[in-house]
Write a structure and sequence with these properties.
690 residues; alpha+beta; Jelly Rolls; TIM Barrel; 3 domains; 5-stranded antiparallel beta sheet; 13 helices; 24% helix; globular
């Protein structure tokens, strides 16, 4: 899971929620007759216009690198040290998405230093209020969390002196077309000052919840577990199951197709479907990470927690675990120490000694009652092995295979598919990983790998050492085409002294671009061919569900479409743009998406923020509905089953409100109701997709 390019993706540390506003928090209110006197326009034309019963400032941005409206203090500097950040309320009046940024400056700001920046993408005809949080360097006291109490998401960028702000601006990042936005208000929000003084210790209660605030659904005493369990069971028994489903969750009332005994794909009148083993049409609505493993660091954090059991406690002691190795969040213990799972402790309190089995049974009851028909990626082994529902598997090449040394990606380097050990690694992984599931018709298929750094192949291979197998293959192909380095230099407009020193140029002319496209496509196709061959050998009845792209690298997507049964994309955005997927020639599945809020004790929204649980539920229904309305899709899977720990998952600090349930195993009622409703419409909507 990561945030990637716009398609209305969230690309900065953003949140829609903030502290209650007051008139004193307003920096600029555009509800006046004239433009602000302290504003300068750079390649932008601004004017005051009537808007929604008030006035606002319409800004037309030109096509230059950084068109902006810039504001300076009336007197020397602004002192914003009492606040956590700056928030801009705006509206996109056009029919296209617009990427927009805020920048807040100290003296000497240059876009990278002495300033803080935040970005978002505003969908057509929508309001957005987005935040630039100030990085004052005082958040390290609460380490290992992507979001912190009081403040919310931890800001990035250079350290800012919030007592001496000299300017802020609203700008577009290198727009390729002119765009228009309507600015309504600029406001300060949140609490500034040393974070350690704002958060009393301990701040985590015995159930793993935030201690210092209350909200609807917060659990206050241990006896509430039994009451909530009974209430949920009564409600589930009183509500009818989603109608018209077969034993696999397929469309029992829909067209009957050939029954092969296994899941397969089929296009009917231009609409792609999965088909159940019984021959009914199937649209996969699933949930990722159905498991109990969420845990957080406790080493070095003793004062944070109201309660932790003793290590030798016979009931809760086994919930501790020792972890070692580097992790990506800066912390005083260097990624080694003890972790604990509050979710596990709450399951023991709720379900008793047989909690693992009873929890697993609750999964099998909850998901179909909410209209889900798939246990999706990253889910716990015992959940899949005992599942009465369709499920997908997750595999990858985890062996000792040489990586492309000149290419560093978000999650790591790409494996070198020309290394002879790559094929061996893939085959061994697929053989072992499919063994338990290849004989069950409930297994839809397998994903292989996740969010690989395809974009690094193009340049990274030629940046690698001379003995890199992929580089050798690339150079051999170029030698066969150009014979000499001088001939290639003339074609590419490069000046490499010899084949060993050849690198991909920063500026690609047409010949260079075409050659790199062909080499990149050959690399990508080799990857998918090798993976597909392993699946056909070891799990011939299941579908190969692709690699879960986090972006849309053209050559890799084309190669995947040539080979895989289904293409998969992890798309963290407000809504899907159907036309991006309709010409791929294969069905498409969303592997991950989510929405989060900060109104129920969580410190971070996740990658796509919403105002509250009501909007979160609304966004879920709109997203799933948009996927169902697109003929290319055969399903979408929500990330994930439960919220992450409020003090951050141990290996990267994520503490997002992205669960269908909170840490106390309590479902979010708004999200559950939205899911039931939209899932009940999925089959008829998808059948009508155009």
């Amino acid at each position: 899971m990561r945030a990637v390019g716009c398609g209305c993706m969230i690309v900065g540390m953003l949140a829609m929620a903030g502290c209650p506003a007051s008139a004193d928090d307003v920096v600029v209110d555009f509800d006046g007759e004239h433009l602000p006197s302290n504003m300068k326009q750079h390649h932008a034309a601004a004017r005051i216009v009537p808007f929604e019963g008030r006035r606002a400032m319409q800004v037309d941005f030109a096509v230059v690198d950084w068109p902006n409206v810039l504001f300076t203090p009336p007197h020397d500097v602004w002192d914003w040290s009492d606040y956590a950040g700056l928030k801009v309320a705006l509206y996109n009046p056009t029919d296209v998405s617009v990427s927009v940024c805020i920048r807040v400056d100290n003296d000497g700001a240059d876009g990278a230093n002495h300033c803080n920046t935040a970005s978002t993408c505003v969908p057509p005809r929508e309001h957005v209020s987005f935040e630039c949080r100030f990085n004052t360097g005082d958040d390290d006291t609460l380490w290992g969390m992507r979001g912190v109490p009081v403040r919310g998401p931890v800001p990035t960028g250079s350290i800012l002196d919030t007592g001496r702000i000299v300017a802020f601006q609203v700008f577009l990042p290198r727009p390729s077309d002119p765009h228009t936005l309507i600015l309504q208000e600029v406001r300060l929000f949140g609490q500034g000052g040393p974070l350690g003084e704002r958060v009393p210790m301990p701040f985590v209660d015995r159930f793993g919840q935030y201690k210092h605030s209350d909200w609807p659904g917060k659990l206050h005493k241990e006896s509430d577990f039994a009451q909530r369990r009974a209430a949920e069971e009564r409600e589930r028994a009183a509500r009818a199951a989603v109608p018209g489903r077969d034993r696999f969750g397929g469309w029992a009332d829909g067209p009957q197709r050939e029954a092969t005994g296994w899941f397969r794909t089929e296009a009917i009148d231009g609409v792609w479907w999965l088909v159940t083993p019984d021959g009914h049409l199937f649209f996969s609505n699933g949930v990722d990470c159905v498991g109990t493993w969420e845990r957080t660091w406790v080493t070095g954090r003793d004062t944070w927690f109201e309660w932790l059991p003793k290590r030798d406690d016979p009931t809760y002691g086994p919930l501790f675990s020792e972890q070692s190795g580097a992790h990506s969040m800066a912390d005083p213990i260097g990624g080694a120490g003890t972790t604990f799972t509050f979710y596990g402790a709450n399951l023991i309190r709720k379900y008793g000694d047989a909690w693992a089995d009873r929890w697993r049974e609750s999964v099998y009851q909850r998901l179909p009652a909410w209209g889900f028909n798939t246990i999706a990626n990253w889910s716990q082994g015992d959940v899949l092995e005992n599942s009465p529902m369709p499920f997908v598997g997750s595999l990858g090449c985890w062996g000792d295979v040489r990586e492309i040394e000149g290419a560093q990606g978000y999650w790591g380097r790409m494996k070198d598919v020309y290394d002879s050990s790559f094929r061996e690694c893939v085959d061994a992984s697929v053989a072992a990983g499919t063994a338990k599931y290849r004989d069950t018709p409930l297994c839809i298929g397998f994903f292989f790998d996740n969010e690989l750094s395809w974009e690094t192949v193009r340049r990274g291979v030629l940046e690698s050492p001379p003995d890199q197998p992929a580089r050798i293959a690339f150079i051999d192909w170029l030698k066969a085409k150009y014979d000499t380095i001088e001939t290639l230099n003339r074609a590419w407009a490069t000046d490499a002294a010899d084949w060993e020193s050849l690198r991909a140029p920063t500026e690609e002319n047409e010949a260079c671009r075409n050659d790199l496209d062909e080499l990149e496509y050959a690399f990508d196709h080799r990857y998918f061919d090798i993976v597909n061959a392993a699946f056909r050998a070891h799990a011939p009845h299941q579908l190969y569900l692709g690699c879960r792209f986090s972006s849309t690298p053209a050559n890799a997507v084309r190669a995947c479409a040539d080979v895989a049964d289904v293409l998969s994309f992890n798309r963290y955005e407000r809504r899907i743009k159907c036309t991006d997927y309709t010409d791929l020639g294969k069905p498409v599945m969303i592997g991950e998406f989510h929405f989060g809020a900060r109104d129920r004790g969580m410190f971070h929204t996740g990658l796509v923020p919403t105002e509250d649980q009501a909007e979160r539920a609304q966004c879920y229904a709109e997203y799933v509905g948009a996927v169902a309305d697109c003929p290319a899709f055969v399903g979408c899977h929500w990330f994930q089953y439960i919220d992450e720990p409020i003090t951050g998952r141990w290996f990267d600090g994520e503490n997002y409100n992205i669960g269908f349930l909170d840490v106390t195993d309590t479902p979010y009622p708004e999200l559950v109701e939205a899911a039931r409703q939209i899932h009940g419409e999925v089959y008829t909507r998808h059948a009508a997709a155009k």
